[in-house]
Amino acid sequence: MEQEFITIAEAVRLTGQSDSDLMRFLKDRMESGGLDLESITRKEQRGSRMMYLISKAFLLGELGIAQSLQDNVSQ
After folding, report:
1. Where are the alpha helices (DSSP H) in 1-75?
2. How far, in Å, CA of 66 to CA of 47, rounded?
3. Cβ(51)–Cβ(43) below 8 Å
4. Per-residue DSSP letter, 17
5. Alpha helices in 16-55, H assignment, sequence order
6. 12, 56 in Cβ contact below 8 A?
7. What does the pLDDT look like over 15-57, one tens digit per residue?
8. 57 close to 3: Cβ distance less than 8 angstroms
9. Is 73's pLDDT higher than 80?
10. 5: which strand partners?
11. Which of 14, 17, 35, 45 could covalently link to 21 via disulfide, CB atoms 3.0 to 4.6 Å apart?
12. End-to-end CA distance of the chain
């Protein structure tokens, strides 16, 4: 199954965290856990804008958001 990537704005709505908190969280995880940025993020051109996307599974797993919340948001 292919990994799902969401925009930072979608991640903010999903988690209730601010965009700056999410970016700080990612930076901390990369520094402390030795994560490869390319494995959890993507850049995608949408129209004339470059969008930064993050792995939804990584985000939910790292923040400890329950599977039931993920299911409710997806519906």
Report:
1. 8-15, 19-33, 37-40, 56-63, 67-74
2. 34
3. yes
4. -
5. 19-33, 37-40
6. no
7. 888 989 988 888 888 788 777 778 888 999 989 999 989 999 8
8. yes
9. no
10. 55
11. 17
12. 19
CB count within 10 Å of CB 32 equals: 8
A 10 A CB-CB count for 35 gives: 15
Q: Give the SS3 label for residue 52.
A: strand
Does the pTM exceed 0.85?
no
CA angle 62, 41, 32 (to 5 degrees): 50
- Residue tagged 């850049």 (tokens): 43
- H/E segment holding residue 1: none
Question: Measured between alpha carbons, how far is 62 from 74 in angstroms, rounded to an integer?
Answer: 18
For residue 9, what are its two tokens? 């704005």
Retrieve residue 69's tokens: 């919340």
Largest Cα span, the chain: 36
